[in-house]
Design a protein that fits this description.
Elements: E1 9-13, H1 18-29, E2 33-37, H2 51-62, E3 66-70, H3 77-91, E4 96-99, H4 114-142, E5 145-150, H5 162-183, E6 187-193, H6 205-214, H7 222-227, H8 234-240, E7 252-254, E8 261-262, E9 272-273, H9 280-290, E10 305-306
Parallel strand pairs: 1-2, 1-4, 2-3, 4-5, 5-6, 6-7
Antiparallel strand pairs: 7-8, 9-10
The structure holds nicotinamide-adenine-dinucleotide (NAD).
């Protein structure tokens, strides 16, 4: 039986890490040749090691797949160029980019150093820009591409992570900004909200526990470990990289644990309309009483319209 990604070439940044590693292996299992990119840094972005990327490449080759390691940093434009060049020189094309590289440098904002902000923004957000900017011209020339940015539910806010939340929210901005631009060339771009027990979540067990218990599974139960494993994300991400997912673009898709979910876009919820200029008293009355809920028109005294 033909595999769904036979003949495709993929790059996975952070492809030697917890979730990125499983995604690399799943893409290879479906037939893609994979550039496993990973600097092998520590969790806060320091250090270098070839071991994570090499380990995943060995596993893929050992299972009969095709893969090559790359150790450049996606946080730098030159690094992204070399990652894309590795795909082109080894495999001659580029169909799939999964940007899973990540670090965290958590800190309350009043203690956050400039470098802690910059390092996180550089890997997640500039990393996304760098790799997308290098990949898109090639994908356009092939009239085919699948791009997945590994965002996070922390894009919606998380204590002590304003750098990470800003970077992950910014990735969603890139997705929404580019979806229409790329559609004409049969290139899709989506963000995923992944989740798993990896070194990144070691200090966040209460968050993991809250997730699991939402699904009616006790965090102590024997299934909990399996539900939190990185591999639970991989088939869902890989599916978004197939031809079958051609009509899914500009979305935020949850891939953590048992469900596959889709998040709403921001939409205008309610409008209070006044044709002549608002005065502060109007705002005080109208906003306080009705911006966030519908109230009977009679209570607005004919001064405003709810639209
Ligand atoms: N684990 C979770 O629950 C969770 C939740 C939401 C989002 N995410 C996101 O999913 C992605 C994968 O997370 P994970 O838990 O597997 O983390 P991880 O720490 O296990 O893996 C991340 C990998 O990225 C690599 N990396 C870091 N900086 C790099 C750079 N500049 N260039 C190339 N590689 C680099 C690291 O060496 C590491 O192997 C990250 O983007 C993370 O923010 C994870």
């Amino acid at each position: 039986m033909k595999k769904s990604l036979e003949g495709r070439v993929a790059i996975v940044t952070g492809g030697g890490g917890g979730i990125g590693g499983e995604v690399s292996k799943w893409l290879a299992k479906e037939g893609a040749a994979v550039v496993v990119n990973d600097v092998g840094s520590d969790l806060s972005g320091g250090g270098f090691s070839s071991t994570p990327a090499d380990g995943i490449v060995s596993e893929i080759i050992g299972s009969g797949g095709d893969a090559v390691a790359n150790y450049d940093s996606v946080a730098q434009p030159d690094g992204a160029k070399r990652i894309v060049n590795a795909a082109m020189s080894m495999f001659g094309r580029l169909d799939i980019v999964c940007h899973a590289a990540g670090i965290v440098r958590d800190r309350m904002v009043f203690n956050m150093l400039e470098e802690e902000w910059d390092d996180v923004i550089n890997v997640h957000l500039y990393g996304a820009l760098n790799i997308v900017a290098e990949a898109v011209p090639i994908m356009k020339s092939q009239s085919y591409g699948r791009i997945i940015l590994f965002s996070s539910v922390s894009a919606l806010g998380n204590l002590g992570q304003c750098n990470y939340s800003a970077a992950k929210g910014g990735q969603i901005g890139i997705v929404q900004g580019l979806a229409d631009e790329l559609k004409v060339d049969n290139i899709t771009i989506n963000a995923v909200f992944p989740g798993a027990d990896t070194r990144m979540t070691e200090g966040m067990s209460s968050t993991a526990r809250a997730y699991i218990e939402q699904w009616g599974v006790s965090a102590e139960s024997s299934d909990a470990q399996g539900i939190r494993s990185s591999v639970r994300n991989a088939p869902k991400v890989a599916y978004l990289c197939t031809e079958a997912a051609a009509n899914i673009t500009g979305q935020v898709i949850g891939v953590f644990g048992p469900p596959m979910t889709v998040y709403s876009q921001r939409v205008l919820m309610r409008k209070l309309y006044k044709s002549n200029a608002w005065q502060f008293d109007d705002l005080d009355f109208a906003i306080g009483s009705s911006l966030n809920r519908n109230i009977p028109e009679s209570r607005l005294g004919g001064k405003y319209e709810q639209r």
